[in-house]
Amino acid sequence: MSKKITRRKFIEQSGKAGLVVAGAAALPRLSSCSIFNDTADIAVIQGENYFQNTIKAVELLGGMDKFVPKGSKVGLLINSDFEVFGTYVNPDISIAAIKMMVEAGAAEITCLQMVKDEYWQRSTHYEEHKEMLGFLKQVETNTFPAEFNEPDFSKIENIDGAISLAETEVVKSWLNCDVFINMPISKHHMTTLLTGNLKNIMGVSTRKANVHMHLGSGERNDPDFLAQCIIDQNMLKRTDLSIVDSTEFITDNGPMGPGTLKKPMKIVAGSDTVAIDALCSTYLGYEPDEILTTLKGHELGLGNMNYNELNIVEINT
Fold it and tell me: CA 189, CA 194: separation in Å to the nearest integer?
């Protein structure tokens, strides 16, 4: 088992850099990216303007065109299909991310799980960007509980390196997209403790595949089996960019809620999904190795749970 990472250790190792960035951010015309030369591995932006802070987070990583080449097909997975505040990604964050993808020159953007109109309408930026949102493609049959159909889903057997997931059914557009962007919320989950990046990948599966993950060991909601199945499925395709909503989320009674609401007001972005999940788990009060998906993802090489080894740039706006 990897050594535990404490908040104290993280603060000791990253405090000086955080102070420098915070000071730079206070200068109104100074670009944070110009200071760090696009070297941030993980960007954390804290503040109340979630739309602008999403843009700032991606800029610290080098800008959206670093991840979305002109003419590319983007697969986008947003944790949106919940009703209680604090259980879904704030739509301001999603709209800001899509705006950057369009400006980077994406040829098409496909929501890999159906996003309902009422989700977008919760955003104060909806009217301004309604036309842009109208150009999004949708995998309309991937709504919970999704059933397999030949046009939209693929049956996958013999996942290379898989331990528990012998087969699965996933959205074809996820496998075929040029760029995969994952947008989860760092809320509580009753079995995996954290939703986050790795757990969010269940959103591209059919009901049958997800039921197997929950019941396939013979024990209902076996935490170890479920976590391993999630990691096995993540091995089918890596995330190119993760933008996590750690602004306002439930810390218990997840994933549906309602639950105790926490408000760190942070947006976390990067490409190492394991490191980001490890960091976001601390916002819920967990150590990274308490989250089995994080631990297993690290052990199988999906990322580095020792997030303090990465360059984390945090700005308070």
Answer: 5
